[in-house]
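Reading a protein record of the kind used here takes only a little practice. Think of the row as the fold of the chain written in a discrete alphabet. A record is reproduced here so that you can trace the correspondence yourselves:
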Amino acid sequence: TSPAFRSIFGTNNGIGSSGIIIDGTEEQKQKYLPRYASGEIIGSFCLTEPESGSDAASLRTTAVKNGDFYILNGTKRYITNAPHAATFTVMARTNPEIKGSGGISAFLVEADNPGITLGKIDQKMGQKGSHTCDVIFENCRVPASALIGGVEGVGFKTAMKVLDKGRLHIGAYSVGVAERMLDDALRYAVERKQFGQPIANFQLIQAMLADSKAEIYAAKCMVLDAARRRDQGENISTEASCSKMFATEMCGRVADRCVQIHGGAGYISEYSIERFYRDVRLFRLYEGTSQIQQIIIAKNMINQVK
């Protein structure tokens, strides 16, 4: 179905609440997780900033301790579900003297807190039904109990663990969308006739169908293997990045082939592939670009032999 439809509950059940599941206190889990699960509230994840995207450790949002509270200041960008969210998992710098990831902490901030404003909803190439916008914190005062896990300085580690699961999520969804696109393209190829026969009879069309089928199968196996390893408690940083990178790149290739199989009809919004083609382009960008996945994979490999 539409990736925008997935985004509402996928973000909520994924990166929007995973920070508490992974590193939250028991009190935080009891307070929020039942409400996320029931759909009473929607969660969102605030990491990206105007000057900090792929280089997430350089974020500038600050959280200054003030008695039993923290004062948050900064802007988060491209935040999925933000216009509808009841809570934000916010990464902010609690120790300005530590420039890298060690000075970052994670907070669960309720959206009705004074000092939070939202920017206009972004107008995107695709996934238009998935609403994103800036989230702006101006002297936003949150209780110390909002600090995820109750510990400063581990927020970046929390974010990376959240993204490991999120990358499996996006990999799995890339497989699902690719299966849908290929199914539509196959049906079109069987029904569409040229030169007196279905275009599915032509070997160049068959090659695109076969390549897509094989790549979808490979990506599916990768995602399932990485997910099983995670369920067994293994560190799957490398496997999650491999799955996300391969599956999202695969999905883009399948989308392109499916437009080609549809011919001119693939460029017209009457057919679903036109929208899917735009929607799936985002998969290679969010929760870590393909290039960031390459860096993670290579660094993990190098560290294993040091």
Q: What stands out?
A: Helices lie at 3-13, 18-23, 26-38, 155-191, 203-231, 237-262, 272-279, 290-304.
